[in-house]
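User: Hey, quick favor. My workstation is busy. Could you predict this chain's structure for me?
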Amino acid sequence: MHTELIDIGSNLTHESFAGDRAEVIERAAAVLVTRQIVTGADLASSRAASALAAAHARVLWSTAGVHPHHAAGFGPASSEELRELLHRPHVVAVGECGLDYHRNFSPPAAQRGAFVAQMELAAAVAKPVFLHQRDAHQDFTAILREFHGRLVGGVAHCFTGGVAELEDYLALGLCIGVTGWVCDERRGGDLRAAVPRIPADRLMLETDAPYLLPRDLVPRPKSRRNEPMHLPHIARKIAQLRNQSLEDLAASSTRTAVGLFGLDHRPNLR
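Assistant: No problem, here it is.
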């Protein structure tokens, strides 16, 4: 492969990367994963992601948001801090935000309130949304419909659903982020059926590192830690499912990520 890939969702501020974060970035670049968007999941990680992106200009960008797991603590001060972060040019999206009724670490009503507040913020600052949804499709899409036409775009991060959910998201104008879930022979069947149906100009690639290590990776790291350097492995699986070349997938997914997030710099490829 001679075309770069962009990992639109890596959690590089995670403690598992504390000892070798620079090497993780270098390993990714060595396999042409030349740009990454570092996910913010609460105020602290959003601040850390912004600082990391600022220290690695033209290689890393970040998001700023509050995941539904942390929604119970969301308030007006949270919105103001996120707004300040989002004025920074390297902070390119609002999120990770959305709804998660699978675990309900925060009450559903609090989740909905935090989600709506962050959607309002995204509309105000004209930046796309980086979205999370689990076991909350109906409420999630209802809120998205309220904001349809007011947002500059968004991505269904770590999409694991099937064709029906995909069609709903595409109708709402969302892009789709696909992770190594597609490599999981136990749980990824619905996603594998949906992947060929994603328009090329809506599909983006992500690892969600250090989570979601591809199950079919050989050899599997002893630590079971996922890294952005495994994005080409995920891309090969997706290209196979879509019956397209890896080069074409790399080119289209990179073009889509650049367009949605405004990543105007093209790094020098090795």
